[in-house]
Amino acid sequence: MGEILIGTEAIAAGVVTRHELQRWYRPVFRNVHAPKGQTLRLYDRTYAAWLWTHREGVVTGLAASALHGAEWVDDDIAIELIWDYIRTPPGITVRHERLADDEITCVAGIPVTTPARTAFDLGRFLPRRQALGRLDALMHACPFVTDDVLMLAERYRGARGVAMLKDVLPLVDGGAASLPESRLRLTYIDAGLPRPTTQIPILDEWGRVLRTVDMGWEEFQVASEYDGGQHQTDRAQYVKDLRVLPKLAQLGWDVMRVIKEDREHDVIERACRALRARGWDGRLCPPPRTAGRRTPPAETAFRQRKSA
Question: Which parts of this chain are annotated as the region Disordered (predicted)?
Answer without folding.
Answer: 286-308
